[in-house]
Amino acid sequence: MFLNRRTPELPTPEQALRGRPVPEFTVPSRHTVLGNPLVGPYPEGLEVADFALGCFWGAERKFWQTEGVWTTLVGYQGGYTENPTYEEACSGLTGHTEAVRVVFDPAVVTYEELLKLFWESHNPTQGFRQGNDVGTQYRSAIYTHSPAQAAAADASREAYQKVLTASGHREITTEILPAEGRPFWPAEAYHQQYLDKNPDGYCGIGGTGVELSAPSATNWGRSCPTGIAPADD
């Protein structure tokens, strides 16, 4: 039913696939680049951030290349189906995004700096698509793990909307919601660090070319960001 629609549409909880109580696959124990465990519990002092910005292969690489990131893993989030498979998520019948979980040391890289990377690494105005990738699983999303993360995410969205509007872009469609009640289901082994295993593999990640000012007490949420500049990537 959903696959034949011209415009992707999220399923209702009643329409979503039921899923299963346990996953059909095993998640690798360690990150192929960073060498740290993929699945928690994580060391004390680290924080968790969840982002969705299109195909998770290229999105994950953006974050594992960032200093202060301890581990990353890809998975499915924001929908209804328990322990989904990749094929199920791509069917549009789970309601999930393709998400990246980022475990980071806030003494080295702040959540606000990760938000800046998030916004600049994709086009957050495209609804249920990212470039040529079309489907509800490619929508832009931030799932927050604390009130502080939620406030920072909201402030960054407002700040980025100002510079996007000034450069002629449309309204941001990114959903910002609490991670609580929206479990992160790790993806299959072959998706984890896909572009490390397949350096010439499909990436699909590309920004608007509009840069967000670095977070400070004088811009995000308090005044207009101070300029528009082409992003490096």
Automatic annotation (TrEMBL):
Any Pfam family hit: PMSR
Gene3D superfamilies in UniProt: Peptide methionine sulphoxide reductase MsrA
EC main group: oxidoreductase
EC number: 1.8.4.11
Presence of keyword Chaperone: no
Residue numbers spanned by region Disordered: 1-20
Signal peptide positions on this chain: none
Keyword tags: Oxidoreductase
MF terms (GO), sorted A to Z: peptide-methionine (S)-S-oxide reductase activity
Positions of the catalytic residues: C55
Domain Peptide methionine sulphoxide reductase MsrA residues, every copy: 50-203
InterPro entries xrefs: Met_Sox_Rdtase_MsrA_dom, Met_Sox_Rdtase_MsrA_sf, MsrA_MetSO_reductase
Catalysed reactions listed for this entry: L-methionyl-[protein] + [thioredoxin]-disulfide + H2O = L-methionyl-(S)-S-oxide-[protein] + [thioredoxin]-dithiol; [thioredoxin]-disulfide + L-methionine + H2O = L-methionine (S)-S-oxide + [thioredoxin]-dithiol
Family named by the database record: Belongs to the MsrA Met sulfoxide reductase family.
Record function comment: Has an important function as a repair enzyme for proteins that have been inactivated by oxidation. Catalyzes the reversible oxidation-reduction of methionine sulfoxide in proteins to methionine.
NCBIfam families: msrA
Protein name: Peptide methionine sulfoxide reductase MsrA
Gene assigned in the entry: msrA
